[in-house]
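Fold it.
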Amino acid sequence: MWLSKQSKQTGRREDPAELGTVTLGGDPAGVYLSGERRNLPVIAPGGYYWRPAAGQQVLVLKTGAEGELPCVAGVRAGACPEALQAGDLLLTAGGAAVRIGADGSLDLRGNLLLNGRPIENLFEPKPEETETEAT
């Protein structure tokens, strides 16, 4: 009994959260911490889907009673590509961006598609009426 208590007290506990580097992008992901961990599920807010890319620095939460269930909880934000005011939200991926302003503004950047079709194809000007149609 004394021996089992001693091993528990001297047992090395891992940190409950740690920054790591993605080695295998996607979901599940591979992340290098003190060694490589694979098949880590990616956690995101409801309705939001995200796949970490190889090389990104991510936050790994070690859940479970002994930290045996690690998961990727987010990516290090780094420097914001543009100035944001308090309450603003900016989502970026590649060359596309959605900026939602606290003032109610919505700014969309990139190739805008509506139901898979370029938006400019949906709003083409109507052909001019010919003189024969007018009479």
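Helices lie at 2-10, 119-122, 131-134.
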